[in-house]
Design brief:
By secondary structure, the chain is an alpha/beta fold. 46% of the residues lie in helices and 15% in strands. It is globular. The structure holds phosphoenolpyruvate and magnesium ion.
Length: 535
């Protein structure tokens, strides 16, 4: 009998599994690189492969919609957009016409170029796009070379691979996968988000060698551990954890339609953080009371021109209609060089970002404000301003909001009033929250940035992760002060940073008097359960 081997990776999606490993090897398949003379034929081959890829993505989108909800089906719409992207197509075309490359080579070269650009970005969300590009390239090359993805297994396994694309994952019967162990990918990669929705535990950053194929393994998606050839004691321990988990996830569904109220009667609203319409579906499926934070950055990424008022309006209206009457909080643009937007700066987190861009570029801000005022006709819309540090900034915003309102009135376009919130995510804002409270209808505390700026630690620098401490008393005192000042002025406070989903601090936040917590859709039910169990 082999000795147990323990591998430590990172948690991708929670949950446990015990089963046999299936190590999926892609091999070192390299598409044929052929220097061609007849460029027209290769252009035609590429065009028809592209059409076939778009068709198969539509099918994948439908299949996913049925299995994992509309939110996850969006992944495949994003991939269709890559196939239609002008820069992507031009680069492939130039490779064929000027580089005399065959279509497979042209696709793999262009995809590598864009993959490297995205995978080098600091923002995890943008990096996740790199995996989409890889997925699209694989699909095109498989079509061009006539080689299909085959995953032929007869019983449920723990699937280990260097990487897996979302489309590969949905082609496999989810009953057949107990867990995923991937070498590449982040918690934000689409394949991981998809696995989480289907309920498959994922460990990232572990390379399982082909020699382990068929061996027994235990996967701990919570801690990121992979045990190969586990001993009997460990297997027993995980068998009971798996049983407990099954019972627990069924029980959690009871909280979908329930309010989060402590035993002593304190109600805490539980809202969702989303980044587009797809998140709204998942948030509603998990019983959110509203959307506490819509990160509108999705409107600005991957494009060369700024979104028009009409584009803003249509995107926000769709979300508002979907939420049928529930409060939807839209945060205005919060981008900067830290998220690959604008010119590179020395200290991007402290640079031209968020409200600073909006206040110096009204041609970016006003169309967004107008789009939001128009969307307000269709439901309960609130606007949230990020990175506020002063009363003056709020005065400038008020002037611009009036200007947006006046323009719509003069043009005879339907619009409505909105509630306005301030993000408290700089120490300065927390310290003057007594003054700011009179300039807004609510506060939303962004603990991710509040921690970063209070402790002077770059939140994106993984080498400093152990110093990034959101429980620091300095941060908690600022949260308490903000809540106290808000309540004195009669306004409510939501926490929308990651701390809101941290069950180890929920009791303390409620004791401080927080009115609402806004968390990712996947965290809603557990948070409600915990709140209902508190005294
Ligand atoms: C925060 O800073 O806590 C926050 C919610 O905003 P983001 O993470 O988008 O900066
Ligand atoms: Mg922030």
């Amino acid at each position: 009998m082999s000795e147990m081997i323990e591998n430590k990776g990172r948690s991708g999606a929670p949950g446990y599994a015990l089963g046999r490993l299936f190590v999926y090897e892609r091999g070192s398949y390299r598409p044929p690189h052929i220097r061609i003379k007849d460029t027209d034929i290769e252009l035609e081959r590429f065009e028809s492969a592209k059409e076939a890829a778009i068709e198969s993505l539509k099918e994948a989108s439908e299949r996913t919609g049925k299995r994992a909800g509309a939110a996850n089906a969006e992944i495949f719409k994003a991939q269709q957009m890559i196939l239609l992207d002008e820069d992507y197509n031009v680069r492939i075309g130039v490779n064929i016409v000027s580089g005399h490359m065959n279509a497979e080579w042209a696709v793999s070269e262009a995809s590598r170029y864009f993959y490297e650009r995205f995978s080098g970005m600091r923002d995890e969300g943008v990096r996740a796009k790199a995996m989409d590009i890889k997925d699209v390239a694989n699909r095109l090359i498989r079509i061009l070379t006539g080689t299909e993805f085959v995953f032929d297994i007869k019983e449920p396994v723990i699937l280990a691979a260097s990487y897996l694309s979302p489309s590969e994952l949905v082609q496999i019967d989810s009953e057949m996968i107990k867990a995923l162990v991937l070498l590449e990918g982040s918690a934000y990669s689409h394949v991981v988000i998809l696995a989480k929705t289907i309920g498959i535990p994922v460990v990232l950053g572990v390379d399982v060698c082909s020699g382990s194929n068929g061996h027994e393994a235990v996967i701990d998606g919570n801690t990121g551990q992979v045990f190969i050839d586990p001993d009997d004691g460990l297997k027993d321990r995980y068998r009971s954890l798996i049983d407990e988990e099954k019972v627990h996830s069924l029980k959690l569904r009871d909280y979908i339609g329930r309010d989060a109220v402590t035993k002593s009667g304190r109600k805490v609203s539980v809202y969702a953080n989303i980044s587009g319409i797809s998140g709204a579906d998942m948030a509603l499926e998990n019983g959110c009371e509203g959307i506490g934070l819509t990160r509108t950055e999705f409107m600005f990424l991957d494009r060369k021109t700024m979104p028009s008022e009409e584009e803003h309006f249509n995107a926000y209206k769709d979300i508002v209609l979907k939420c049928s009457g529930k409060r939807v909080v839209f945060r205005t643009l919060d981008l900067g060089a830290d998220k690959g937007f604008g010119e590179i700066e020395e200290n991007p987190a402290l640079g031209r970002r968020a409200i600073r861009i909006c206040l110096t570029n009204s041609e970016i801000f006003i169309p967004q404000l107008k789009g939001l005022l128009r969307a307000a006709v269709y439901g309960d819309v609130a606007i949230l301003y990020p990175m506020i540090t002063s009363v003056d900034e709020m005065r400038c915003i008020a002037d611009l909001l009036n200007e947006a309102d006046d323009e719509l009135t003069r043009a005879g376009v339907m619009h409505d009033s909105v509630k306005q919130g301030i993000m408290i995510e700089t120490p300065a804002a927390a310290m003057i929250s007594d003054e700011l409270a009179h300039m807004a209808d609510f506060f939303s505390i962004g603990t991710n940035d509040l921690t970063q700026f209070s402790l002077a630690i770059d939140r994106q620098n993984k080498d400093l992760a152990r110093f990034y401490n959101p429980y620091h008393e300095g941060v908690l005192k600022m949260i308490a002060l903000t809540i106290e000042n808000a309540h004195k002025a009669g306004i409510e406070v939501t926490i929308c940073g990651e701390l809101a989903a941290d069950l180890s601090i929920t009791k303390r936040l409620i004791d401080m008097g927080v009115d609402a917590l806004s968390v990712s859709p996947a965290s809603i039910l557990q948070l409600k359960e915990l709140i209902c169990s508190l005294d």
